[in-house]
Structures are given as C-alpha cells and as structure tokens.
Design a protein that fits this description.
Layout (H helix, E strand, L loop, with lengths): L1 E2 L2 E2 L21 H8 L4 E2 L1 E5 L5 E5 L2 E6 L2 E8 L3 H9 L1 E6 L5 H8 L16 E2 L6 E2 L5 E13 L2 E13 L6 E4 L2 E4 L6
Antiparallel strand pairs: 1-2, 3-13, 4-5, 4-8, 6-7, 7-12, 8-11, 9-10, 11-12, 13-14
Length: 189
C-alpha cells in the first residue's frame, strides 16, 4: 500500500479470523439475510401520492447516475408499494436522519393504516412535482419519475429520473446494520 508517496506495510488478518467459508446452504434465504445484514445502509422512506398513496421504509435505494440524474429503488413484488409505484409512475424519497428511528419503524410496520390515513400519524408536506408525501426533519428529499423497471427475482428495480432534489443544512444519517438502527460515530481528525 502507498500512503503519501511512501510504502506502508499492512498486516493481513489471520486467515481464520475473516475468511469466507463456503457452506452447502450458502445461498439460502437466512444465510443471505445474515450476510447482507453486514452491509451498512442508509434508511429512506419511499412515498407515492395520488390514488395509491403509500409509504414504505426502504434501504434498497441508491444513486445510479448524475448525468442524467437517476436513482434506483428495489421493491418486493408482494409489497403494496410495488403496485403504487407501478400505477402512479412516480415516487418520492425522504432520507432519514438520527432521531427518525420511530418514523422508520412506523413505515416498516405492516399494521399501520393503508392509504392516505397512514400519513395522519406523521408530519408531511406534498412534493411540489409529484404530490408524494415528503417528511420534514429528514436529511434530504427527492422526487422521481419512473423511467424504467427491471425484474430481479422477487423484486422489481424501479429506475427513477430525479425531478427535484433538496437537502437539509445539517444532520447525521440514520443507518441500518445487523438488523438494527445505528448512528455514525462523530468524525475525529
């Protein structure tokens, strides 16, 4: 490894400590869930306005392209959000921050009311481009128009052209890791 123009020797971890192990059930659902739980992600709430008004906590969300501005979200075929995005052809994203753990939990709870009534329990404003609910107190917001859909196993990947994007002046991200919410450690110099 090279650092500041000088070679730095790194010590490899003990082979037993962090070696991948192949097991006969490596591709089963539980194993994959455990493995993917080791990948830290941000937390979003995806929303759709209109007749299919709905919200859903999601961490399967990412930026795809800056030119043109595109994002991607992955939704299970069985989720209510799948039908909502398919019909409305647009969605909004609220990127959650520290202090919004209850909001993330609420939109992940399948027992919450369906339709517009689910938004009675939270503060929200309609997105100016899509009318989809945007959640105040978040770190950032996007509104998107679906431009393509790809099938991937039991999910669809919705590619969204970004119609608008705004961000809060400050805040810390809410993270998901190992099946639980986490906060970033403060950055030290």
């Amino acid at each position: 490894m090279v650092s500041n123009g000088r070679a730095v020797r790194t010590t490899a971890p003990h082979p037993q400590a962090h070696s991948p192990k192949s097991t006969p059930d490596a591709a089963d659902h539980a194993s994959l869930r455990e493995v993917m739980g080791r990948f830290a992600t941000g937390i979003t709430v995806l929303t759709v306005g209109g007749e299919r008004c709905h919200g859903m906590t999601a961490n399967a969300f990412t930026s795809v392209s800056l030119d043109p501005p595109l994002v991607l979200c992955c939704i299970a075929h069985t989720a209510r959000m799948h039908e909502a995005i398919t019909v409305e052809r647009s969605f909004a994203v609220s990127v959650l921050g520290v202090g919004q753990e209850d909001t993330a939990g609420y939109f992940a709870d399948k027992r919450r009311p369906a339709g517009p009534a689910q938004f009675d329990a939270v503060d929200w404003v309609p997105g100016p481009r899509t009318g989809a609910p945007l959640l105040p107190g978040s770190l950032a917001w996007l509104e998107c128009e679906v431009v393509d859909v790809h099938q991937g196993g039991d999910h669809s990947m919705f590619l969204g052209a970004v119609l608008s994007s705004t961000r809060a002046a400050e805040g810390q991200p809410l993270l998901f890791f190992g099946g639980a919410f986490h906060r970033c450690a403060p950055h030290t110099h």
